[in-house]
C-alpha cells in the first residue's frame, strides 16, 4: 500500500511553511480507493509509518487529522464518477518527516478549495453536528494547515497539516 521514499514530493512543497526539503528524513505514500473504509486504511498506514519512524506517541493526534483530511477528500474532493471501480486510487496520503516536524498531505482530484463552516474556527462550531467541523479539528490539533492547487500533469489539490514533533 505505501512506498518509502518514492513519493514525488516536489508538488507538495508549495504552500508549506519554510522547510528545508533537502533535510527530509522520511517520506511515505499511500494510495486510497474511493470508499469510506479508506479512512481506516489511512489510519493503519499512519500507525505503521509512525511506528517505523519511532513516533508512536504522535499517533493519536496525527491519526485524528489524517482521518479528517481523508474523509474530506472522499466526501468533497471526488467527482461523482470517482465512485466507479475504474478509479481505483484518486486520493493519496503522503507523510513526510523532518527532524522535528511531520507533514500529512492528502491529494484529491478536485481543484475546489477546502471550506470551513465558519470563517474562524474560534467562532461557535456545532460539535454535535455530524459534519462540518473537520477543518476546525485539523486547525486545533495541528500546528498549521493549508492547501494549494496542483498544476501540470497533477490535477486537483493538496490539503496539508504540519505537526511539531519530539523525536524519541
TrEMBL record:
MF-aspect GO terms: ATP binding
Ranges in a coiled coil: none
Gene3D superfamilies referenced in this protein's UniProt entry, alphabetically: Histidine kinase-like ATPase, C-terminal domain
Histidine kinase/HSP90-like ATPase domain sequence ranges: 33-143
Keyword Nucleotide-binding: yes
Pfam entry (one): HATPase_c_2
Record keywords, A-Z: ATP-binding, Kinase, Nucleotide-binding, Serine/threonine-protein kinase, Transferase
Official protein name in the record: ATP-binding protein
Organism: Streptomyces ovatisporus
Amino acid at each position: 500500500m505505501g512506498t518509502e521514499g518514492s513519493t514525488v514530493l516536489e508538488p507538495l512543497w508549495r504552500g508549506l511553511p519554510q522547510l528545508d526539503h533537502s533535510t527530509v528524513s522520511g517520506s511515505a505514500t499511500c494510495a486510497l480507493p474511493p470508499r469510506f473504509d479508506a479512512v481506516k486504511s489511512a489510519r493503519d498506514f499512519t500507525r505503521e509509518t509512525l511506528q517505523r519512524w519511532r513516533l508512536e506517541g504522535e499517533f493519536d493526534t496525527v491519526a485524528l487529522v489524517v482521518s479528517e483530511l481523508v474523509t474530506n477528500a472522499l466526501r468533497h474532493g471526488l467527482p461523482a464518477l470517482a465512485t466507479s471501480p475504474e478509479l481505483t486510487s484518486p486520493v493519496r496520503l503522503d507523510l513526510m518527516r523532518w527532524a522535528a516536524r511531520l507533514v500529512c498531505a492528502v491529494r484529491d482530484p478536485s481543484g475546489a478549495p477546502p471550506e470551513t463552516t465558519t470563517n474562524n474556527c474560534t467562532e461557535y462550531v456545532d460539535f454535535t453536528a455530524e459534519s462540518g467541523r473537520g477543518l476546525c479539528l485539523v486547525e486545533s490539533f495541528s500546528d498549521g494547515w493549508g492547501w494549494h492547487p496542483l498544476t501540470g500533469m497533477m490535477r486537483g489539490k493538496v490539503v496539508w497539516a504540519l505537526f511539531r514533533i519530539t523525536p524519541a
